[in-house]
Amino acid sequence: MSGMLEQLLTLSRADSHGLTLQITKTDLQTLLLETYENFLPLAADSGHLLSIRLPEAELPLCDCDQGRIRQVCHILLHNALSHTPAGSTILFFIAEGSYEKEMTVGVQDNGGGIPDGEKEKIFDRFYRINPDSSSVRQEKGHHGLGLAVAKEIVSAHRRTLTVSDAPGKGALFLLTLPLKP
User: Fold this and answer.
1) Alpha carbon distance 142, 112 (integer Å)
2) All structural domains of the chain with their residue ranges
3) Mean per-residue pLDDT pooled into runs of 10, the chain (181 residues)
4) What is the pTM of this model?
5) Which of 72, 142, 152, 181 shows the greatest Cβ crowding within 10 Å of its Cβ?
6) Alpha-carbon span 77 to 123, nearest angstrom
7) Which helix (H) or strand (E) holds 65?
8) Coil, strand, or helix at residue 77?
9) Fold of the 2-178 domain
10) Cβ–Cβ under 8 Å, residues 108 and 48
11) Phi, psi of 37 (to 5 degrees)
12) What are 131-138's contacts with CB under 8 Å, separation 24+?
């Protein structure tokens, strides 16, 4: 209940342009590694294989609100664990490529995926995929707020959060973050 209340407060702040960000220079590799380590027990308990892929090279610092971006990562990982069957693999990563202006953080699973007609709707408040329209598993405790909150946080950073089909099968969420404001 407290999680739902916090999500509603975040959305309310976003509606009133009161969602303030504490932008700092953030080491995304460390943030992702800490988040990954926090989710390992939950992944193991739910029968999922959680893996992480980080560049070997040291990356530049990212200008973002560390707490809010951690919150987005939690939402994406929690959804992947909740909406894919046991035995699924979930990959948490920083995309390889140019790190001149932005970095891309991703969460990819090999579950049933998200039907094309649902991809944009899943970011709407209180929207939940109809379990009859896909192989996505619905769990109690999901109220259709997490992805709406994540989208608002990313929008406050003036960046994007997208979903597409993962190579093979499953869902792929990509979050772009600025290296410079």
Assistant:
1) 18
2) 2-178
3) 50 57 92 97 96 92 92 94 93 85 93 88 74 45 74 90 92 88 55
4) 0.83
5) 72
6) 15
7) strand 62-65
8) helix
9) Heat Shock Protein 90 (3.30.565)
10) no
11) -60, -35
12) 135/85, 135/111, 136/83, 136/111, 136/112, 137/82, 137/83, 137/84, 137/85, 138/83
Q: Residue 33 and residue 23: Cα distance in Å, rounded?
A: 20
Query: CA–CA separation, 75 vs 10, rounded Å?
Result: 13
Cα(13)–Cα(29) distance, integer angstroms? 29
Note the pLDDT of residue 163.
Answer: 95
Residue 174: helix, strand or coil by DSSP?
strand
CA distance 96 to 93: 9
Of 6, 86, 75, which Cα lies nearest the Cα of 46?
A: 86
Q: What is the pLDDT of residue 140?
A: 45
Alpha-carbon gap, residue 159 to 149, rounded angstroms: 14
Distances (CA, A) of 5 to 9, 10, 145: 6, 9, 10
In whole angstroms, what is the distance from residue 33 CA to residue 36 CA? 5
Compute how many other C-beta atoms are within 10 angstroms of the C-beta atom of residue 53. 13
